[in-house]
TrEMBL record:
This is Rho GTPase-activating protein 36. Residues 141-163 have a biased composition (Low complexity). Residues 216-417 form the Rho-GAP domain. Residues 77-90 have a biased composition (Basic and acidic residues). GTPase activator for the Rho-type GTPases by converting them to an inactive GDP-bound state. One of its GO terms (cellular component) is cytoskeleton. It comes from Catagonus wagneri. PANTHER family: RHO GTPASE-ACTIVATING PROTEIN 6, RHO-GTPASE-ACTIVATING PROTEIN 6 FAMILY MEMBER. The keyword Repressor does not apply. The lineage of its organism: Eukaryota, Metazoa, Chordata, Craniata, Vertebrata. Keywords: GTPase activation. InterPro entries: ARHGAP6_RhoGAP (IPR041852), Rho_GTPase_activation_prot (IPR008936), RHOGAP6/36 (IPR037863), RhoGAP_dom (IPR000198). It holds the Pfam family RhoGAP. GO terms for biological process: positive regulation of intracellular signal transduction; signal transduction.
Amino acid sequence: MTLDVFRFGLQGDFTWNSMSGRSVRLRSVPIQSLSELERARLQEVAFYQLQQDCDLSCQITIPKDGQKRKKSLRKKLDSLGKEKNKDREFTPQAFGMPLSQVIANDRAYKLKQDSQRDEQKDASDFVASLLPFGNKRQNKELSSSNSSLSSTSETPNESTSPNTPEPAPRVRRRGAMSVDSITDLDDNQSRLLEALQLSLPAEAQNKKEKARDKKLSLNPIYRQVPRLVDSCCQHLEKHGLQTVGIFRVGSSKKRVRQLREEFDRGVDVSLEEEHSVHDVAALLKEFLRDMPDPLLTRELYTAFINTLLLEPEEQLGTLQLLIYLLPPCNCDTLHRLLQFLSIVARHAEDNVSKDGQEVTGNKMTSLNLATIFGPNLLHKQKSSDKEFSVQSSARAEESTAIIAVVQKMIENYEALFMVPPDLQNEVLVSLLETDPDVVDYLLRRKASQSSKSPSFVKASFMLCLQSPGISTV
């Protein structure tokens, strides 16, 4: 059984027919709505297109997660100083760590919290299950005492053996459903079980697949954004959009250091209204500055800079392809950060509120924000520490280029993280060569997304988990 694909060249649409005969038309979708497997294949498709169609005059490689970097002399000295000051007896969980490790730490902490809540709930349920037994036993003893005081001529009541309490309910039970019972399930349950089976690398994979693909999920992965970044962005969006000179006004070093240590200890920090906007802004900048590898990665530094050498109409599409090359954690974190910076930039100018009150802008335009964040998001590894102290015209030109690239990202972030239908088509074609069953499942998932209600679709898009960008014919 095969899958058919048709292209409507005039409209640039792509329509696929699934094995069930349902037609699915591809349209632009957020990259976060793709499955883990699709995102991995999208990296390869984007890499090929960059090499074939984009003349960036540099070597392009796909960055890897969590690469270890050689420490500069300054960082080595800082590390030695920290080792001498043994006032911190913990392993940092956020600052100075590879981004993928920070997200893994956050997830481990969340799983630990969930496990503790489940254990507490299980204990409460167990105690609750024993209460009826205790009450019945107490009632029986009271009844026996009363009967002994009655006359001997009365017929004694029939003894009632205490009811054995129901065992505590078992939670998180796995493997309770047999594969043989799939025909007894309704359509939604059947598809869920099928999805779970497809996700198991050892049971339903073709021998021709790559070893890497066997470990990738056929469903969208959770949004990989560090808790610190998301918390800071949410706090500043709520309390700092009208703050003049946000990210430029000084902060309290003591309070920032305290917040930093709390996040590094893995504490569940809650940023409230009393936390200074400038302290939280400084904390966010410190996190990005201290990352071992910049968010846009050193491997792609020259490629990002050289996009400015292309024709204006080609620059945005090339930036988009380069973003597809980023590891998922870098891509998702970059999207959250650019989304936030775009919101800040929209409040830069003075305006009048609905009730006629004049609202002062924060003065932070996209250019000002790119000037502040650009050097932390995009930089290359220096050949020696001496280069950090050498100011040259070449470095000044590079700094200007970095600012221009980041400014373009802030102003066009929504378009940069959408995946057009032609690239989705290339991804599905590459999967079709080895896994037609997988493609059929992905098509049915896309079709089911399009059938959601409008309110659900809008909420899903805002959460970057699902999108209505696929419509059925």
